[in-house]
Amino acid sequence: QKEVEQDPGPLSVPEGAIVSLNCTYSNSAFQYFMWYRQYSRKGPELLMYTYSSGNKEDGRFTAQVDKSSKYISLFIRDSQPSDSATYLCAMSFPSGGYQKVTFGTGTKLQVIP
Amino acid sequence: GAVVSQHPSWVICKSGTSVKIECRSLDFQATTMFWYRQFPKQSLMLMATSNEGSKATYEQGVEKDKFLINHASLTLSTLTVTSAHPEDSSFYICSARTERPLNTEAFFGQGTRLTVV
């Protein structure tokens, strides 16, 4: 079983739709939970991070963490064509003086105008 | 956010040659940089952790003699793929971590697509 599981998609939605991206994990040691956006042939860009269960909102994006179920989600409201990208969940735990990060495989999202 | 610059963004080399990839933190000092490898439709796989002024720490299964990492200063880390072969063709990405406000926040370079022919 992988430490982090993420549905690879692809996910195709119409502009304005609400998008739900999800990851599950198995390692209880994970402390920080992050979502990255990666455009084609580019490095990932950090969107949001959190370290506690619950919701965190930033504009059209809401990150949700449920540590009891080992489940995290990213919601995108009023999706735009510019949101089309691959979204990676990531989680980290302390190791050797820094946070060791494990990434999901990414979900490819396409928002259709 | 902080800027990490990676160079080159795309390189093609002949089998058996070596390729050097640079990763620079442009507006902050990064005591620790990370090198990842990403195959199509797969997640980023950590190859090694690079600390300024010391030897890199390699993940299990990564050949340290093949992937040479040098972190000569607080703003520069390099990855050299030695004697490259077609199976080394991949997308290589570096990241640099800041200590504040969150010591896991990472800024990524734009990646280097290596094709070995």
Could you explain how this protein is built, in words?
The complex is a heterodimer of chains A (113) and B (117). By secondary structure, chain A is mostly beta strands. Helices cover 0% and strands 59% of the residues of chain A. Chain A has strands at 4-6, 11-14, 19-25, 32-38, 45-50, 54-58, 61-66, 71-76, 85-95, 98-103, 107-112. In chain A, strands 2, 4, 5, 9, 10 and 11 form a six-stranded mixed sheet that branches. Chain A is globular, with a radius of gyration of 14 Å. Chain A starts with a strand and ends with a strand. Chain B is an all-beta fold and 117 residues long. Helix content of chain B is 0%, strand content 51%. Chain B contains no helices and eleven strands. In chain B, strands 2, 4, 5, 6, 9, 10 and 11 form a seven-stranded mixed sheet that branches. A four-stranded antiparallel sheet of chain B has the order 1-3-8-7, with no helix packed on it. In chain B, a hairpin with an 8-residue loop joins strand 9 (90-97) and strand 10 (106-108). Chain B starts with a strand and ends with a strand. Classes of the chains: A mainly beta (113), B mainly beta (117). Chain A binds chain B through residues 4, 6, 8, 31-32, 34, 36, 41-46, 49, 88, 92, 96, 98-106, and chain B through 1, 4, 6, 9, 32, 34, 41-44, 46, 49, 57, 91, 93, 95, 97, 102-111, 113.
Short description:
Chain A is mainly beta. Chain A has strands spanning 4-6, 11-14, 19-25, 32-38, 45-50, 54-58, 61-66, 71-76, 85-95, 98-103, 107-112.
What's the pLDDT, averaged over the residues of chain A?
92
Rough outline of chain B: globular
Number of strands of chain A: 11
Distance between the first and last residues' Cα of chain B:
36 Å
Distance between the amino and carboxyl termini of chain A: 37 Å
Shape of chain A: globular
Q: How are the SSEs placed, and which strands pair?
A:
The complex is a heterodimer of chains A (113) and B (117).
Chain A: E1 4-6, E2 11-14, E3 19-25, E4 32-38, E5 45-50, E6 54-58, E7 61-66, E8 71-76, E9 85-95, E10 98-103, E11 107-112
Parallel strand pairs in A: 2-11
Antiparallel strand pairs in A: 1-3, 3-8, 4-5, 4-9, 6-7, 7-8, 9-10, 9-11
Chain B: E1 4-7, E2 10-13, E3 19-25, E4 32-38, E5 45-51, E6 57-58, E7 67-73, E8 76-81, E9 90-97, E10 106-108, E11 112-116
Parallel strand pairs in B: 2-11
Antiparallel strand pairs in B: 1-3, 3-8, 4-5, 4-9, 5-6, 7-8, 9-10, 9-11
